[in-house]
Each structure stands twice: as structure tokens, then as C-alpha cells.
Design a protein that fits this description.
2 copies of one chain form a homodimer.
Chain A lengths: L4 E6 L4 H12 L4 E8 L7 E4 L2 E7 L10 E4 L3 H13 L3 E4 L29 E3 L3 H13 L7 E8 L6 H15 L31 H14 L5 E8 L6 E8 L6 H10 L3 E3 L8 H5 L5 E9 L2 E11 L3 H19 L1
Parallel strand pairs in A: 1-2, 1-5, 2-4, 5-6, 6-7, 8-9, 11-12
Antiparallel strand pairs in A: 3-4, 8-10, 10-13, 12-13
The complex binds NADP nicotinamide-adenine-dinucleotide phosphate (2 copies).
One NADP nicotinamide-adenine-dinucleotide phosphate binds next to α1 and α8 of chain A.
Chain lengths: 336, 336
């Protein structure tokens, strides 16, 4: 890859944005100019990239004809407001906010290799799957030679960083208030999340589903290549700062061969299988890592046709930033 | 109920034991003498009951012929060591530790009413179902006229008080250490549980199942009256002091009628249904309450034949102590 490109990073001052900057440097991505963008409030801050301090600028005034690729990591509203202008400028877009419908911006799983990006035309618009869809899809892809489930059930225990910086601050503040027996104030969430579990992320629709759960199901159907896959999902917020914990169950029509499942997981790309008896955790294993950690591989407790497993994964790094950079690496190989 | 009985309470100084003492008083249980028992370490402490201070005595020296009923809330080993002597003394036993096989000490769900205790003979030995089995069984019982699932999937996010007083102390200490940036020590659990999720409770067997998960499945099969029910269960520990959070999914062969489910839950004994759009939490709703709180009633996100719901329940009170006293109330009505 001798060519280099100009890149815009929208949401540079956020958790995901900062991880993106780090990864572009770490992985020696062929960047020529890197434009760091955020809201006007943080314009003027700076971030270090390849030994230089880069100024953060306001997204509002930015001209996307200067760049060939833009990462969007600044929330749904920002992507929705800008994606048309970005395309009109001839710039490709990798969205991390799950703002665009999957038919407009299909989601891509780098673990599927070059096939993952087939059929896309430049300037492309792609979606980075949500962190728990990524983790599950990596596992489903690994097991595909053995198991094509008819139903999957996911219980995703998401860390508070799912809500960005304000979520992390909220958990820290609430915890300190409770430990010091001060009255509890709530800001980024509407109730106590410290030492508690919140049953949903954001509002739910008439049918009771959160946006995130619907997106997850659609992404899993697309990424697994099983459009008819029945999906049940409950995404909750736990009082954990970083790292997602997932209990995944897959229903098959035949008895599950656990030894064969373990063999596939041991050698799969992107997965670290933790030995039987032990288990991975978000904080102890996954955070800061590029791999999806899998453990507790077993049949349903009284259901031999069910596969249960446990996944710990870094929502900011593997779940978002790394994935986005890996997707960009695949795409530039083909299209630039 | 004009008769009164003598009662022994084993594990009186624990969380569950203290809740039992409170409930026996609150519900005006026909107790004549109450014998509070614990290990020799806490012998000599005292607890208040009906305005008097009762001394805690050592279990070792206790003569069970003095009592007609004994509650055992002091762990698996204590029940296993004493249950035969208790029976030989002609004393009935209500076990809260899940120590006895269900064929020896069937589990009883008070919500099933008088039928729940049919066929038992005095001196009886019964098991109080584990807290999450109780919560799920109450819901399954309420839905029985509409839905007899072929498969249920439970993800139980259990509070650290599941491990008793030492668990509660552990979470408090770990949290304070982390907030004060002191090095983390682990005692009651083998790794960081503050701001983390632990994927299993206790050790797992060769097949990967924890004792608690197997017990839960067996209890659910017995309590639901569906011995062939396929059960998948993942019980994890979350950094919450009190109150369990359960994500429950039930698989049916036909599309789920959500309105009918809601009607049944609204009027069911022992259940508080939270209105659509809102949801209950362990800390905000369930702790200190006698009811099982249910919310997020919905179909699978892409699976109309699945019912998903969310349950918050007090593991110490409804999940253990209240249940035990309700069972005792049913039994003494018939057998004393
Ligand atoms: N956190 C995760 O686990 C995760 C995982 C996958 C995807 N994502 C997605 O990634 C995005 C960022 O998440 P995060 O966790 O990094 O959130 P965050 O820490 O709260 O950061 C949000 C970023 O968006 C910027 N921003 C907000 N409003 C803006 C506006 N009107 N114009 C320009 N920039 C604006 C912020 O800039 P200022 O500093 O100027 O406010 C900041 O850089 C979100 O879409 C999120 O859904 C997050
Ligand atoms: N916590 C829950 O959520 C929950 C729910 C349902 C059932 N349970 C079951 O209820 C039981 C008690 O749980 P917990 O949460 O109350 O635990 P806990 O707070 O740790 O209390 C344990 C109790 O058992 C006593 N004990 C321990 N070893 C003993 C021995 N060798 N001889 C006599 N007494 C002994 C302790 O007495 P000392 O003070 O002398 O040590 C204390 O009274 C356990 O079997 C547990 O599985 C607990």
C-alpha cells in the first residue's frame, strides 16, 4: 500500500475517536492528512498523532472534498445530518453510530476477509456493526462449518461507556455519592445505575424493543448470512466502565457437539478461547484487547440442542474503533 | 390458627436469617419459642424478636426434639450435616440452601396455593426454590393458561449478596479500593467483581454447568409441572449489593399474544407488572419488597414465537425468607 489518503475523523474527542487516532497510528494506516473534528465546544483542543499535536476543529465548517475517507463517531444525529454531503463530496464514509439503514450502508465484519466488502462501489458508505453484534458475529462465523442456528438469544450486559463519556462520568459520580452516603443525583441516565442494572438502553418502541436491540438483530442476520435467523435480544446496562459481557445461546435442530465447537473456536480468527473451568471477564481480559474472549462453552443445562457461551469484548476498541480501521484497511486495498 | 409451634432458625445471623426473624414477627407466625442458631463464633450475639432480645446459640449443641420446625439457612454443608438428625428428632425442615435432592425435599412455590404442598407427609422436608427459580416460576405459573413453553432461556444477573455477608463486604471493599486507586485485594471471590461481571457462580462441572444452574433447571421443571422443559441458564454475578435482575425468554410453537400475556401478569398473585415503556430495577423497585417485578414484556426482536421479559426480585426477601415463611404457613395449616 504505497498510496496514502486524507482522512476526517468526526467525534475525535470521544472515547471511540481517541481509540481511532491511536489505532491509525499503531497499525500504520496510510494516512496523509488526518483531520480531527468535533463539536465547536472542543475545537481548539489537540491530540497527539505520529509525534505531532493535531488541532481539533469544528465539524460545521469542514469541507469534505479535502478527504477521501471519513470516520463518523459522533452519534446518530451527526451522521444523519452529514452523510449526504459527505457522499456528494465524493468521500467514502465509515459510520460507527449505527445511524444509516443497512441497505444504504451495509455492515462489514473484517473477520469474514475480503468477501466482506464484495459488491461495494466507491465512494462507499459502510456501517461498523454495533459492538455486541460484532462479538456474536465473529463467533457465529467461526462456528458456521458446524452450526447454522435457527434461533439465537443474546443477553448483552453492556458497560456504561456505551453511553460515551457522559455515561462513564455518571457511573463514577453516582458510585462516589453512594459510598459517601450523599444524596444521589442522576444526569446521563434517569435512575441509579451504580450498584444496579438498567433493563434497557434508551427508549423502546411500541413493541417494546430498543433501537439497539433491533439494530443488533438486523446486523446479526446480515452478517451471519442467515436473513431468516430468529433473534431474541436483551441489552442492559451494568455498572461496569468498559467492556461488554454477553451470554449467547444458539438453538440447533440437533445435539451440539461441544468438542467440535471448541476446536473451531480455538483456531478462529479474532477469538481467544478461555479454557474450560475458567472464564473471561470484561475488565480482566477484554478491555484494551483486539480479540473477542470466549468461555463457558456448553450445552443448555437441560437442552442438548442448545449451545451456550460467554463472551467478553472491549466495546470501544474491538467493538468500534479497531473494527472501523480493519474495515478501512480492507476497503482501501480494493478501492483506492 | 390457634396452635403455636417451636421453631429453630439455623443461620440466624446471616442476611437470610435476619430477614426470617423479621418476617416471622411481621406476619405474626404462630411461634411459641424461637431458637436462633449459628456457628459457635456468633453464639452470644442477640437479635430482637417481638420486643425481646433473643440470644443466638451454637448449632452444634442444639437438641432438635425441642422444636417442630427448623429453617436451615446456613449453607449446603450445614444442611447436609444435620438434616438426618433433624428428621430423626421428628422435626420438619425447610431448607433454604438447596442442599437436598428434590426427590427427598421437593421444592414448593407458595403462589401455587394449597396444591403446592399436596402429598407431603410429616415430619416433612421441603426445599425453598432458589431465588431466580422462584421469580421465574411465579411468572410461568401466571402464564400457564396461555403458554406452556417448550424452552426457556434465563440469564440471571445475581447480586453479590447471593454469596452472603462475605460477598457484600467484598464488593464494598473492592469498590472503595478501586475508587481510591489502592491495589485490589480479592477474598470472597477470586477476581475483581467491582465494576465487572463474573460469568459464573462457584465452580462448574465437566459439562460446564454451575451447581446453581443445574438446580435452577431442575426446580423450574418441577415447579412448572413441565418435567421435559428444555432450560438454558446462565447465572452471573453483577456488582450490585441486593436484588436479582433476570432476562427470561420462553419459546413457544405459536406466535405470542402480548396483550393476553399482559392481562395475565396484571392480575397474577405475587407479581407487579410495570407499565410498558418503563421497567423495574433491582435497587429501585424490588429490594425490600414481597413481589416479583416484571417489565419489558415483548416478543423476540425478530422472533414472534418468543416471549421476552425482564424480572427484578429481592433475592433475600422474596427469593428466600418470605418464601420460606409462606411455605411454613401453608404447611402448618395442613399438618399441625
Ligand atoms: N462507546 C461505545 O461503546 C461505542 C461503541 C460503538 C460505537 N459507538 C458510537 O460511536 C460514537 C461515539 O461514541 P463515544 O463513546 O466515543 O462517545 P463520546 O465519548 O461521548 O464522544 C462523542 C464524540 O462526538 C462528538 N460530537 C457530539 N456532538 C457533536 C456534534 N454536534 N458535532 C460534532 N461532533 C460532535 C463529541 O465532541 P465534543 O467533545 O465536541 O462534544 C465527541 O468527540 C457514537 O455514535 C456511538 O454510538 C460507541
Ligand atoms: N443470600 C441469598 O440471596 C440467598 C437466597 C436464597 C438462599 N440463600 C441460602 O441461605 C443460606 C444463608 O445465606 P445468607 O445470604 O444469609 O448467608 P450469610 O449472610 O453469609 O449467613 C450465613 C449464616 O450461616 C451461619 N453458618 C455458617 N456456617 C455455619 C455452621 N457451620 N454452623 C452453624 N451456622 C453456620 C452463619 O453464622 P455465623 O454468623 O456464626 O457465621 C450465618 O448465620 C445459604 O445456604 C444460602 O445459599 C441465600
Amino acid at each position: 500500500m504505497s498510496k496514502t489518503i486524507n482522512i476526517a475523523l468526526v467525534g475525535a474527542t470521544g472515547h471511540v475517536g481517541e481509540a481511532l487516532v491511536e489505532l491509525l497510528e499503531e497499525r500504520d494506516f496510510p494516512v496523509k492528512d488526518l483531520h480531527l473534528l468535533a463539536s465547536s465546544e472542543s475545537a481548539g483542543q489537540s491530540l497527539s498523532f505520529r509525534g505531532r499535536q493535531l488541532r481539533v476543529r469544528s465539524l460545521e465548517a469542514f469541507d469534505f472534498t479535502q478527504v477521501q475517507l471519513a470516520f463518523f463517531a459522533a452519534g446518530v444525529d451527526v451522521t444523519r445530518a452529514f452523510h449526504e454531503a459527505v457522499r456528494a463530496a465524493g468521500c467514502s464514509l465509515i459510520d460507527l453510530s449505527a445511524a444509516l439503514p443497512l441497505d444504504l450502508a451495509p455492515c462489514v465484519l473484517p473477520e469474514l476477509g475480503e468477501g466482506a466488502t464484495q459488491g461495494l462501489t466507491a465512494p462507499w458508505q459502510v456501517s461498523v456493526p454495533t459492538p455486541s453484534a460484532t462479538a456474536c458475529a465473529v463467533v457465529l462465523a467461526a462456528l458456521k462449518p458446524l452450526l447454522q442456528p435457527r434461533q439465537v438469544q443474546l443477553n448483552a450486559m453492556l458497560s456504561i461507556s456505551t453511553l460515551g463519556r457522559s455515561g462513564v462520568q455518571e457511573l463514577a459520580r453516582q458510585t462516589a455519592e453512594l459510598l459517601n452516603a450523599r444524596p444521589l443525583e442522576t444526569q446521563a441516565v434517569d435512575r441509579q445505575v451504580a450498584f444496579n442494572v438498567l433493563a434497557q438502553v434508551g427508549a423502546v418502541d411500541e413493541q417494546g424493543h430498543a433501537e439497539l436491540e433491533k439494530r443488533l438483530a438486523a446486523e446479526l442476520q446480515q452478517l451471519s448470512g442467515l436473513p431468516g435467523l430468529a433473534v431474541g435480544a436483551t441489552c442492559v446496562l451494568v455498572p461496569v466502565f468498559f467492556g461488554d459481557s454477553l451470554a449467547l445461546a444458539m438453538q440447533s435442530d440437533v445435539d451440539i457437539d461441544i468438542a467440535a465447537v471448541q476446536r473451531l473456536l480455538e483456531t478462529a480468527a479474532g477469538i481467544e478461547l478461555v479454557e474450560a473451568g475458567d472464564y473471561p471477564t470484561a475488565v480482566g481480559d477484554a478491555v484494551g484487547q483486539d480479540l473477542v474472549y470466549v468461555g463457558r462453552v456448553r450445552r443448555g443445562v437441560s437442552d442438548p440442542r442448545q449451545l451456550n457461551l460467554w463472551i467478553a469484548s472491549d466495546n470501544v476498541r474491538k467493538g468500534a474503533a479497531l473494527n472501523a480501521v480493519q474495515i478501512a484497511e480492507l476497503l482501501i486495498k480494493h478501492y483506492l
